[in-house]
Specification:
heterodimer; A: alpha/beta; 11 helices; 11 strands; 36% helix; 20% strand; B: alpha/beta; two-stranded antiparallel sheet
């Protein structure tokens, strides 16, 4: 028996963290960056345990990022399920992080159909990470009520715009996806099932520093109120936590910053993640924080 | 190729709406038929139904999103008491605008000052589809119609929209709000036989009659008052002895001002004579005048519909009516087990 087979004979818990998010949310880059973080992790919470059997997707992505570029959406395969052997709190485990193009999640909102094979990933220990870009380049969808509320009554009479063809607002789709996932869990595992669903805000470096200092929950409250209010109103039916991430601390699409990254001692030490706890904002460079939270069976949220 | 659904009672082939889910997309029970006469079947055998090509996605009981389907309405009402609000009114009276305005206001936190927080909705795509046409601005020509009907074919069925709100003082409030075609009100005024569509009224916690405020002032006011007296009569006949709260609401406060017009007050008095606890209100959902706020009076109207006590559930009644009438049947029966 080869040594790889010996590892497979051990009892390892397979834990799935499902990535959910629309096009350009940053799911693929986040996934690759988390792989790099596992590779270099020295923590005793998550660390590597040998190599995945199928490394093609992860290795290709890692090479792209380590040479100072983001993984390009168009070159991503249609669907991947990287399976990474890890130690989680000392116990051997297999971390599976399925990903698929953001268009598939858009289709879920429109057509109300779940990709069939993804039901296989849904067991009681599966967690989800909803990935969303902090400031989508196309801006946020507006309406008369919100405009009046935030900018005053005149705001609706000073514009010439037609946004009737805009897609549904991002936060509407996010809440819709979360509700779909919660109901699927309850249907499969009983009405008291409480899935663990984290929200990961990406490209946090694009947000102004004053806003970043207030933390991700305050950011959601100001910019994505519907999502914020849904999360705080539904503690009874889901375990949720909000994280904000910058995977390399800046924009790799900016040639100057890209050069900074490739010139650095170790790009894998770059980047940061913020979350809120007991009213305080905690920031660290432990990018695995959202995954660690997702893998926790119990514990403080 | 035509599609025909094998789920009992479903009329997908005729109406392009799935009776299980309320979705325009067919579910897995649908099959394809060759609806062209075949010249190769010399034996005269009928064509066998062809199975639909296996799809890579499944419909797994995901809620419809556009309006509440039968199963979702039942589930929501079983989970928690749902405050049922029926909104009646003619075409363009402002029924859908009221619902969309409430939704958009909750979404941006406009009612937070009054303690209301958005807590969920299984009809977010439905609200969004109705709100779409309101996302346009023109300083010279403000749009006079801010909402759109959802696309469910020409023979549009009514349905319910869902909104959960929390308030620190009172916990979670579940709102189930009807969005009916304006023609239903017109048909009911014209002929009592259309009363069958409104059998769920007895389960309503509140009934709102929405009237275009501009029709309540000027030369149209007498005929509008008479139309709505008839509507009140029809509603009273359908309800029998039951008397939910009745709100008589004039829209377009941006055009007519905030004081209830005399015709509306007369209507409210008429409704009280018929035994209703009724009141007259004026609201503005989407204002064309910057001096009048969008959403004026809407949250107050909603709050007045949420009673402090729950209505007693109507006894369940067996019926042969097919269960594809999203929402009407279980609501008529006071909930489906």
């Amino acid at each position: 028996m080869a040594s790889g087979d010996v590892w497979r004979c051990e009892l390892t818990a397979s834990r799935t963290v499902l990535f959910v998010g629309g096009p350009n949310a940053g799911k693929s880059n986040l996934l690759i960056r988390l792989w790099l973080a596992i590779r270099s992790s020295t923590s005793n919470v998550i660390s590597k345990r040998g190599l995945p059997i199928d490394l093609n997707y992860l290795q290709e992505g890692a090479q792209t990022q380590l040479t100072g570029s983001f993984v390009d959406h168009t070159s991503a395969p249609p669907e991947v399920q990287p399976s990474i052997p890890i130690y989680f709190k000392g116990a051997p485990a297999e971390l599976v992080m399925p990903d698929r193009p953001g268009e598939d999640w858009d289709r879920l909102y429109r057509d109300r159909r779940w990709p069939e094979e993804w039901l296989n990933y849904l067991d009681q220990s599966t967690s989800c990470l909803i990935v969303m870009r902090a400031l989508p380049p196309q801006g946020q969808t507006r309406d008369w009520i919100a405009l009046q509320y935030f900018m005053g009554p005149r705001a609706n009479f000073n514009l010439e715009e037609d946004r009737t063809e805009d897609p549904a607002p991002l936060q509407v789709m996010l809440v819709d996806w979360i509700q779909i996932i919660v109901r699927l869990y309850q249907r499969r595992f009983g009405s008291s099932a409480k899935p663990r669903i984290g929200v990961v805000i990406t490209a946090w470096d694009e947000v102004e520093e004053e806003q970043r200092e207030l933390g991700p929950m305050e950011f959601l409250k100001n910019e994505y109120k519907l999502l914020h209010d849904y999360l705080i109103s539904n503690h009874a039916s889901l375990n949720s936590k909000v994280f904000a991430v910058s995977i390399f601390g800046g924009d790799l699409a900016n040639p100057d910053y890209s050069k900074q990254v490739t010139d650095s001692e170790d790009p894998v030490q770059l980047g940061w993640v913020s979350s809120c706890r007991d009213g305080s904002v905690l920031t660290s460079n432990e990018l695995l924080t959202p995954v660690i939270w997702a893998l926790e069976a119990t514990g403080d949220d | 190729m035509a599609l025909k659904c094998t789920y009992e009672g479903c009329l997908y082939a005729e109406q392009q709406v799935c009776s299980r889910t309320g979705n325009p997309s067919p579910c897995e029970f649908v099959q394809e038929f060759d609806d062209q006469p075949s010249s190769t079947h010399a034996s005269g055998e009928a064509d066998l139904p062809l199975p639909v090509e296996a799809k890579s996605t499944v419909e797994t009981g995901i809620h419809t999103g556009q309006e509440l389907g039968l199963a979702e309405l039942s589930e929501l009402m079983d989970e928690q008491y749902g405050t049922l609000i029926t909104v009646l009114g003619d075409y363009k009276a402002g029924k859908t605008s009221f619902l969309v305005c409430l939704y958009l206001a909750c979404a941006c936190g406009m009612f937070e000052d009054r303690g209301w927080t958005f807590a969920g909705s299984l009809t977010l795509p439905g609200f969004e589809a109705r709100a779409r046409s309101g996302r346009r601005w023109s300083a010279a020509n403000p749009p006079d119609r801010m909402t759109e009907r959802t696309v469910l074919g020409d023979d549009r069925n009514g349905g319910f929209l869902h909104l959960d709100l929390t308030r620190s003082s009172s916990g979670r409030t579940r709102l189930l709000m009807s969005d009916l075609p304006g023609e239903w009100t017109k048909d009911l005024i014209g002929h009592a036989r259309f009363g069958y569509r409104f059998e769920f009224l007895a389960r309503s916690d509140a009934i709102i009659i929405m009237i275009d405020g501009e029709h309540l002032v000027g030369k149209l006011r007498h005929s509008e008052l008479e139309r709505n007296r008839i509507l009140v009569d029809r509603i009273a006949d359908i309800l029998g002895k039951s008397r939910p709260l009745l709100k008589l609401v004039a829209t377009r406060a941006d055009k007519i001002g905030q004081t209830p017009p005399k015709a509306l007050l007369d209507l409210a008095a008429y409704a009280r004579e018929k035994g209703f606890v009724s009141e007259a209100r004026v609201i503005c959902t989407f204002s064309q005048d910057e001096a009048t706020s969008c959403g004026l009076g809407t949250i107050e109207l909603l709050e007045s519909c949420i009673s402090s006590g729950n209505r007693p559930r109507v006894e369940q009644v067996d019926t042969q009516v097919p269960s594809r009438l999203f929402g009407w049947l279980p609501v008529t029966c006071g909930g489906v087990s």
